[in-house]
């Protein structure tokens, strides 16, 4: 299977809560569209430090994480982040990578949005067997 990138929207979850509470307007929400590398071998969403700063994400924790090359490093966990893809969305935390690298869309956010990799077309697709879920997420 080849490398798959997908356009996702990342939204600062704390801002969404402030909109719901009436403290800020929807136009003030920190959000960005990015190309993310779809990586079913990764667990979480991983973002570069520069993106975490741009979205003004809060540090929630520190974890030891294993990189693809087997190296273990300590990384910040930030969030919450709403990840949006097509008619799907989920709220997750992200591991921060110090290098200016690709956003990695890991298995946890993919499973939560009920999306899957189509290996023939090398695309991320909404699970065709769950049309009711899309309706539930849009309600």
**How would a crystallographer describe the biggest sheet?**
7 strands, mixed
Shape: globular
| Unreliable residue runs | none
Strand content: over 45%
Number of folding domains? 1
Structural class: alpha+beta
Listing every helix as H and every strand as E from the N terminus to the C terminus, the arrangement reads EHEEHEEEEHEEH
Count of DSSP E strands?
A: 9
What top-tier CATH class fits best?
A: Mainly Beta
Number of helices: 4
Q: Let me know the CATH homologous superfamily.
A: Acid Proteases
Give a short summary of the structure.
By secondary structure, the protein is an alpha+beta fold. The protein has four helices and nine strands; from the N terminus they run βαββαββββαββα.
Element layout with pairings:
Elements: E1 5-12, H1 13-21, E2 31-38, E3 45-48, H2 49-54, E4 58-66, E5 72-85, E6 88-97, E7 103-105, H3 107-113, E8 115-118, E9 123-126, H4 131-138
Parallel strand pairs: 2-7, 3-6
Antiparallel strand pairs: 1-2, 1-5, 4-5, 5-6, 8-9
């Amino acid at each position: 299977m080849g490398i798959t990138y997908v356009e996702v929207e990342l939204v600062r979850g704390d801002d969404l809560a402030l909109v719901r509470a009436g403290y800020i307007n929807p136009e003030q929400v920190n959000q960005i569209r990015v190309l993310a590398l779809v990586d079913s071998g990764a667990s979480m969403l991983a973002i570069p430090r520069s993106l975490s700063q741009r979205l003004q994400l809060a540090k929630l924790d520190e974890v030891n994480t294993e990189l693809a090359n087997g190296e273990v490093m300590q990384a910040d966990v930030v969030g919450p982040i709403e990840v949006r893809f097509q008619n799907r969305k989920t709220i997750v935390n992200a591991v921060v990578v110090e290098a200016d690298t690709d956003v990695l869309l890991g298995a946890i956010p993919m499973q939560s949005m009920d999306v899957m990799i189509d290996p023939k077309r090398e695309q991320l697709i909404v699970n065709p067997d769950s049309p009711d879920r899309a309706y539930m997420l849009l309600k």
